[in-house]
């Protein structure tokens, strides 16, 4: 399982989206998120985007006020995950038009659907923006 | 559930947006349900609302309620397991939006312990069979995230059908879901695996990407089963231009290549080609990683990888730098040159502002350590440690300690240097590695006899520094310093000074356990001094062996300037102090260095004449010092301290008697008691100077049970016999070694002397016998190498290097050291005592154990099939190409005929080409009757047939077993 979880966290350390691909209890999730946020948010722009934590490798990237944190296996290619994060942001950008924290807050479901289109079971299955957004746009047209 | 509330709810229900706005107004910090009281009231009010609304019969109300709950669950960690049934209810809704909400809630909140999960089976099956692809996709997504073994078993047939879906995005999701199903229900492999393999040939990048991802995960767990698929992966490696796919394929090859070296020859060229061509750093890095991990035999490839790593390292991007260092660390064991070429960057990275990069660089530096450069590298690192933050500083110290002590200090030649380095580390301000340094100081003291003078010297330097006592982190080191100073006191230059250090007032800052060690050491020093005083001749003899002499000088310096001029450094430090030699001092004169010794002897004896008086004063002075310091501690509440103080005071009583006896101008009639006192001092000294060597863990087991020894099983009658004896024994409560107990008794009564001496001599004889039998556990008693005296004192190194620790300077400094050089070794490496077993660290050699991996069993069964049968009809290699072509031909119609559900895997035609051929049955069959060459008779497994095929399975499993056994020598033809 390449990707273990995806988090979006704002500058204040509040979780805005959390998607796990393995089962953790609520308490475990909270603890994990707290530790990771503390570790990653303290880092500066000049430091690298990879942090090892427990048995995960965290690849993160900051876009404006939002941090995208992806927890992966040790096997995973860090640079590919960085590209994946960028793809995710671009996809959201295309859908919401210059995506910001509020978009994700108010459209959490949609963000989840986009992720579901891109990642299944921890594997990246779709990398084409139009394919990812297709079902969502269809749905929006219908309703 | 009346209509009334439901209607009210739907009319006045708060939407998700309202909820979010409300949460924002109340400024509720995500992840903290307990915020301000006001906000937590809002939260609990909202949950109550949801609880009410979710029971509504109105779909829309229910959907919104569930949406809100899902939101609260995922961002505010609100428990929603109670709503599981509602999620299932909504998933069966006819309104797509409600269905979607239901499934989303399920996939976010369900886990294997959710009991209602089985109720979802039917709905999932229905949606998987649905005509609406979006419903199918929704069901697949949900299945992939909440799958349980039961769900996997029940829905495998549907999944199998979907693997052949004509809609790309459904097929892709089905493939991704299959991975999860395989894990939970390995029998599904038998059903679905061949369809999975077929899809490797698919032209759609998305599908190939998904399938390669699945194989990457599978191969990660147990790569061997997938070797037969290497040709397919190879084709993708060569043909694909999609970086996502290539990265995954490279990961698969990284796992496969170590299993089959010939595979490496095939793939190394395409991988290098990708590495040269690609502009994508991610792909380039994956190529590098594959080469440095799995293709290290291919020199050209490694060279290319090293070049690319260099490019990474020179980039400004910290990410690339970090990864470059990681790759360098991976390449280090195979090609140290690559590391050496980049040493400048590595050393500079030690002061990077990113702690991750620093750690990586440190790991790399440690990988470069060898016998020749260990001193320089450690010096550089200590300089870094001095100026870095506490965390990294300790990381540095820790890695120095672990690297240098690796495999019995194998990289250390100059132990004098290393011991003084340990002392230096103790003085690094942030040092928190006390325990490790303590262990190593004691360990080296015991193992390396040649280095003992230096150990004592370093110990002394630590002990006499009152500032160190204030730092709790180095108390453990001080404990070790005290111990070595006491144990090897014969190497001490100035026992008086040592005694003062051990008893200095600030020692009350130490924890009791360390203090006890201090006092015990003081005890040893005192014993040694007394012995030296009472038996000058024997001490002299000891001085011939190069030990006592220094003490003489110490005493002389202490007492009189006239003698201090004769300071002689250790002439033969390596000869050590051996108690056994005391009994036969004459023999020593015939040592290897006869002349020098004799001259030393004369020197010493000449001054020892004068010394007679000084020593007495000094001894009295020492005794007084000890007594005045320790007397108040006799009432200490700490047993350890109290116990030891009593020992020392007892000894003092004894010595004092003796000294006064001597002060009285020699009356020939020495009374009995005084004689005894001398005797006791000698016995104690002998006891202390017994070597304490490292003991093998299994040593006890090797001592054979003596013949006459009978161990009573029932000790109850023993109680009756020595009932009154037991009480004192118990109350003495001594954790000390037996010898201190013994001394305790000595001080109590002089009459018992005779008996008291006995056990120690007995134990000595036992020891000698033990030594005879188990010589290997003991330090060698004969002298080994001679150490030239002109060797520069180790401390000088550390003294020299001044504050000038600019990065560039350090880089320059390491320049020479990193190049593997063969300098003439100035000094032979001293003997390091090792035990043949027992204290060796057991490296768990992970034997390639045959794990009962159900998935790979099944995979091998499917892939290798009836290979045992097929191997008998072996055809020659010329068949290969045509075979391949024919496979391609059989493939195409299959894809076009996607809804044909009966697919059979025809097993490999021959052993060489273990290819998988796919054929469709039924109407297609006649077209291809010509192709059914070899695998005709194979079992026809119809996975989607509804009847259970248990009988089949058991047979197949049996086949599988055979195949696993027969599999190893078989290699895919494409490797040849």
TrEMBL record, chain A:
It comes from the Eukaryota. GO terms for cellular component: AP-4 adaptor complex; trans-Golgi network. It is found in: Endomembrane system. GO terms for biological process: intracellular protein transport. Its main location: membrane. Gene3D superfamilies: 3.30.450.60. Keywords: Membrane, Protein transport, Transport. Residues 3-142 form the AP complex mu/sigma subunit domain. Belongs to the adaptor complexes small subunit family. This is AP complex subunit sigma. It comes from Coffea canephora (Robusta coffee). The lineage of its organism: Eukaryota, Viridiplantae, Streptophyta, Embryophyta, Tracheophyta.
TrEMBL record, chain B:
InterPro entries: AP3_complex_dsu, ARM-like, ARM-type_fold, Clathrin/coatomer_adapt-like_N. Keywords: Golgi apparatus, Membrane, Protein transport, Repeat, Transport. The keyword Transport applies. Residues 44-504 form the Clathrin/coatomer adaptor adaptin-like N-terminal domain. It is found in: Endomembrane system; Golgi apparatus. Part of the AP-3 complex, an adaptor-related complex which seems to be clathrin-associated. The complex is associated with the Golgi region as well as more peripheral structures. It facilitates the budding of vesicles from the Golgi membrane and may be directly involved in trafficking to the vacuole. It also function in maintaining the identity of lytic vacuoles and in regulating the transition between storage and lytic vacuoles. This is AP-3 complex subunit delta. It comes from Coffea canephora.
């Amino acid at each position: 399982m390449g990707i273990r979880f995806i988090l979006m966290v704002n500058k204040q350390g509040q979780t805005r989206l959390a998607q796990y691909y393995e089962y953790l209890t609520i308490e475990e999730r909270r603890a994990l998120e707290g530790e990771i946020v503390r570790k990653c948010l303290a880092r500066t722009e000049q430091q690298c985007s990879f942090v090892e934590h427990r048995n995960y490798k965290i690849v993160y990237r900051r876009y404006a006020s939002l941090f995208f944190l992806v927890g992966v296996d040790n096997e995973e290619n860090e640079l590919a995950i960085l590209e994946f994060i960028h793809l995710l942001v671009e996809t959201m950008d295309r859908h919401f038009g210059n995506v910001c924290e509020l978009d994700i807050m108010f459209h959490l479901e949609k963000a989840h659907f986009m992720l579901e289109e891109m990642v299944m079971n921890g594997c990246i299955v779709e990398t084409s923006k139009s394919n990812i957004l297709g079902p969502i746009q269809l749905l929006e047209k219908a309703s | 559930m009346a209509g009334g509330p439901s209607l009210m709810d739907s009319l006045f229900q708060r939407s998700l947006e309202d909820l979010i706005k409300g949460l924002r107004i109340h400024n509720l910090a995500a992840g903290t349900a307990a915020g301000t009281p006001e906000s937590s009231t809002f939260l609990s009010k909202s949950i109550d609302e949801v609880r009410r609304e979710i029971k509504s019969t109105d779909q829309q109300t229910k959907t919104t309620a569930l949406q809100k709950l899902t939101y609260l669950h995922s961002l505010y960690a609100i428990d929603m397991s109670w709503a599981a049934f509602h999620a299932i209810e909504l998933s069966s809704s006819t309104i797509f939006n409600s269905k979607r909400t239901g499934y989303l809630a399920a996939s976010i909140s369900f886990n294997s312990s959710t009991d209602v999960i089985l109720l979802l089976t039917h709905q999932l099956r229905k949606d998987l069979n649905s005509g609406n692809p979006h419903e199918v996709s929704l069901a697949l997504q949900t299945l992939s995230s909440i799958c349980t073994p039961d769900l996997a078993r029940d829905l495998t047939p549907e999944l199998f059908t979907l693997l052949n879906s004509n809609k790309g995005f459904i097929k892709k999701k089905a493939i991704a879901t299959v991975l999860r199903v395989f894990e939970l229900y390995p029998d599904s492999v038998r059903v679905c695996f061949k369809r999975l393999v077929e899809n490797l040939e698919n032209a759609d990048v998305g599908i190939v990407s998904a399938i390669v991802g699945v194989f990457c995960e599978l191969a990660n767990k147990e790569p061997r089963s997938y070797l037969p698929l290497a040709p397919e992966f190879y084709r993708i490696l060569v043909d694909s231009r999609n970086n996502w796919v290539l990265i995954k394929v490279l990961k698969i090859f990284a796992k496969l290549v170590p299993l089959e070296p010939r595979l490496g020859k095939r793939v190394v060229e395409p991988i290098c080609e990708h590495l040269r061509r690609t502009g994508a750093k991610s792909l380039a890095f994956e190529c590098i990683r594959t080469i440095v991990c799995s293709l290290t035999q291919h020199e050209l490839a490694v060279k290319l990888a090293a070049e690319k790593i260099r490019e990474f390292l020179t980039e400004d991007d910290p990410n690339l730098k970090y990864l470059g260092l990681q790759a360098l660390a991976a390449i280090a064991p195979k090609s140290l040159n690559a590391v050496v070429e980049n040493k400048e960057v590595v050393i500079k990275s030690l002061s990077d502002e990113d702690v991750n990069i620093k750690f990586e660089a440190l790991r790399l530096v440690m990988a470069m350590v060898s016998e020749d450069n260990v001193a320089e590298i450690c010096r550089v690192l200590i300089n870094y440690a001095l100026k870095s933050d506490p965390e990294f500083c300790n990381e540095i110290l820790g890695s120095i300690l672990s690297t240098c002590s690796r495999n019995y200090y194998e990289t250390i030649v100059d132990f004098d240097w290393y011991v003084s380095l340990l002392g230096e580390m103790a003085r690094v301000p942030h040092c928190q590695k006390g325990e490790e340094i303590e262990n190593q100081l004691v360990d080296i003291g015991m193992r390396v006899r040649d280095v003992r003078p230096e150990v004592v010297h370093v110990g002394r330097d630590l002990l006499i520094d009152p500032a160190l006592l204030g730092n709790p982190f180095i108390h453990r080191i001080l404990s070790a310093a005290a111990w070595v100073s006491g144990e090897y006191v014969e190497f001490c230059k100035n026992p008086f000074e040592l005694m003062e250090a051990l008893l200095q007032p600030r020692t009350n800052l130490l924890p009791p356990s360390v203090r006890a060690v201090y006092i015990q050491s003081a005890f040893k020093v005192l014993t040694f001094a007394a012995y030296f005083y009472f038996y000058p001749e024997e001490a002299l003899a000891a001085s011939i062996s190069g030990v006592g002499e220094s003490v003489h000088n110490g005493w002389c310096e202490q007492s009189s300037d006239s003698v201090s001029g004769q300071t002689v450094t250790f002439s033969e430090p390596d000869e050590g102090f051996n108690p056994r030699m005391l009994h036969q001092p004459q023999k020593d004169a015939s040592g290897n260095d006869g002349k020098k010794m004799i001259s030393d002897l004369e020197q010493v004896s000449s001054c020892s004449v004068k010394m007679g008086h000084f020593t007495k004063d000094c001894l009295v002075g020492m005794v007084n010092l000890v007594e005045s310091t320790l007397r108040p501690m006799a009432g200490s509440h700490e047993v350890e301290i109290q116990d030891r103080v009593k020992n020392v005071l007892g000894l003092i009583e004894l010595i004092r008697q003796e000294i006064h006896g001597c002060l009285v101008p020699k009356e020939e009639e020495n009374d009995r008691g005084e004689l005894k006192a001398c005797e006791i001092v000698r016995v104690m000294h002998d006891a202390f100077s017994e070597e304490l060597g490292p003991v093998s863990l299994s040593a006890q087991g090797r001592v054979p049970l003596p013949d006459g020894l009978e161990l009573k099983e029932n000790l109850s009658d023993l109680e009756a016999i020595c009932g009154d004896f037991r009480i004192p024994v118990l109350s003495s409560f001594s954790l000390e070694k037996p010898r201190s107990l013994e001394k305790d008794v000595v001080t109590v009564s002089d009459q018992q002397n005779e008996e008291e001496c006995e056990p120690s001599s007995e134990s000595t004889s036992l020891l000698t016998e033990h030594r005879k039998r188990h010589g290997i556990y003991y330090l060698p008693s004969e002298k080994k190498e001679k150490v030239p005296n002109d060797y520069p004192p180790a401390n000088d190194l550390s003294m020299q290097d001044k504050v000038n620790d600019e990065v560039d300077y350090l880089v320059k400094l390491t320049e020479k050291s990193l190049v593997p050089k063969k300098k003439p070794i100035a000094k032979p490496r001293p003997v390091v005592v090792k035990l043949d077993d027992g204290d060796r660290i057991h490296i768990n050699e992970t034997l390639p154990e045959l794990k009962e991996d159900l998935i790979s069993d099944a995979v091998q069964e499917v892939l290798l099939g009836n290979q045992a049968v097929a191997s008998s009809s072996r055809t020659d290699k010329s068949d290969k190409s045509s075979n391949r072509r024919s496979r391609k031909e059989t493939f195409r119609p299959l894809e076009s005929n996607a809804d044909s559900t009966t697919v059979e895997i025809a097993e490999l035609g021959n052993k060489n080409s273990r290819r998988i051929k796919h054929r469709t049955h039924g109407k297609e069959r006649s077209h291809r009757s010509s192709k059914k060459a070899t695998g005709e008779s194979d079992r026809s497994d119809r996975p989607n047939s509804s009847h259970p095929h248990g009988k089949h399975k058991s047979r197949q499993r049996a086949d599988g077993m055979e195949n696993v056994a027969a599999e190893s020598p078989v290699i895919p033809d494409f490797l040849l």
